[in-house]
Structure formats: structure tokens, C-alpha cells
Amino acid sequence: MINSFFNPVKELFRGLYITAKNSLKDNVTLLYPEKKKNMNKFFRGKIQYIKENCIKCKLCQRVCPSKNTIQIDKYYSINYAQCIFCGNCVEYCPRQALILTPNYELASENKNDLIFKEELI
Ligand code: SF4
Ligand code: SF4
Fold it and tell me: Considering the entire predicted model, what is its pTM?
């Protein structure tokens, strides 16, 4: 360690060797957003709400560990700024009214844009 610290030429060539070796490998990053990653079937992304299946039992709300993330009154709403994507609501829903999708594009500059809302009445 001390030897390599005092041998800058050797370190320079070592660095060049590592760069050259890795430049021959495939890229590990994508040119997002032009290219997007296909998520596998176990990925927990944005939740799809199927209003027709929902019986308003509020079980999803009760099993959600992030309090107040799901609101059910005049609207069914999920606040993605608070959701931790644990999947509990989807797993416990007795009517398959919630589905986890592979959509991970949720970034926003405005927190209000992260609240999904669907009118229930
Ligand atoms: S658990 Fe399912 S059916 Fe019950 S309120 Fe939630 S989404 Fe609707
Ligand atoms: S995924 Fe988890 S945190 Fe998000 S709304 Fe469902 S239960 Fe709550």
C-alpha cells in the first residue's frame, strides 16, 4: 500500500489498464429515458386500481404500514410520496382491485402529482 502510494507511474498504468479492460465490456447503464429497463414480474412499481372490483372494504388501508397513504372516502387515493411499495395492499385485497405494475416512472417536482385519485361516487 505504501509502495504503491510512492509509485505514481505504476498507479497510472494500473489505472489505464483497468479503464481499457472495462471499456471492452458491455455497458451496465442505459441511456435513460431513451432506453428503459424491462422490470421483472416481481418488481413492485406503481399500483393500478380497478374501481369495478373494489368493494370499499378498506382492508388495503388497514394493512398499509405507511399511515394515511391510502384514503378511501369520496375518492380512492394513494399517495406515492408516502408509499413504500411493500405490496401489502395488493396482497390483502380480497377482490384483486389493486395490481402492482412494473411502472417505476414516478419522479415529480411537485408532491401533489404523486397523489393518485379516483372518484368513487
Ligand atoms: S382492499 Fe381492495 S376491495 Fe377493499 S377497499 Fe381496498 S382496493 Fe377496495
Ligand atoms: S404498497 Fe404498501 S405502503 Fe404502498 S399503499 Fe400499498 S400497503 Fe401502503
Answer: 0.79
